[in-house]
């Protein structure tokens, strides 16, 4: 059987039911589709809560000898890998203290920031409720109960 037309021209006349057959690619999304996707994603991100895990920690100052740096020990409870009992896990962090205002034993909050040095990425911030509570307790005089003593009657 002799073919008078080249074989490629014979197949061009065939119409396929699906454009994806024989290696055809999917159509690219239009700009309106991309804009709709971006708007939906932006709306989702506005509603989603910001996760602040490991952004702020609370601990006790254990070393304040370095200039503008304090070592803070953070204690957390974690399950023991084998016995599953909750045990105290301690870790020391180096924190930036620009005014050298913290002494050993102070309770501070660590706020995460940009790296200041190789080991310092936290800023030491005084805990609002803790620092003032000690001063108020020490300054307040003991209150009388107002109960008459037996010796007075």
From TrEMBL:
GO terms for cellular component: ribonucleoprotein complex; ribosome. The keyword Transit peptide applies. GO terms for molecular function: structural constituent of ribosome. Gene3D superfamilies: Nucleic acid-binding proteins. GO terms for biological process: translation. Residues 134-153 are annotated as: Disordered. Keywords: Ribonucleoprotein, Ribosomal protein, Transit peptide. Belongs to the universal ribosomal protein uS17 family. NCBIfam families: PRK05610.1 (NF004123). PANTHER family: 40S RIBOSOMAL PROTEIN S11 FAMILY MEMBER (PTHR10744), SMALL RIBOSOMAL SUBUNIT PROTEIN US17C (PTHR10744:SF7). This is 30S ribosomal protein S17, chloroplastic. It comes from Sesamum radiatum.
């Amino acid at each position: 059987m002799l073919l008078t037309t080249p074989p490629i021209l014979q197949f061009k006349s065939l119409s396929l039911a699906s454009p994806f057959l024989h290696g055809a690619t999917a159509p690219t999304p239009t700009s309106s589709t991309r804009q709709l996707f971006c708007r939906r994603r932006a709306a989702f991100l506005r509603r989603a809560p910001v996760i602040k895990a490991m952004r702020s920690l609370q601990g006790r100052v254990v070393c304040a000898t370095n200039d503008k740096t304090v070592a803070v020990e953070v204690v957390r409870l974690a399950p023991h890998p084998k016995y599953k009992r909750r045990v105290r896990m301690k870790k020391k962090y180096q924190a930036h203290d620009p005014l050298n205002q913290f002494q050993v034993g102070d309770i501070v909050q660590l706020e995460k920031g940009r790296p200041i040095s190789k080991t310092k990425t936290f800023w030491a911030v005084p805990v609002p409720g803790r620092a003032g509570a000690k001063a108020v307790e020490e300054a307040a005089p003991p209150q009388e109960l107002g109960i008459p003593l037996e010796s007075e009657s």
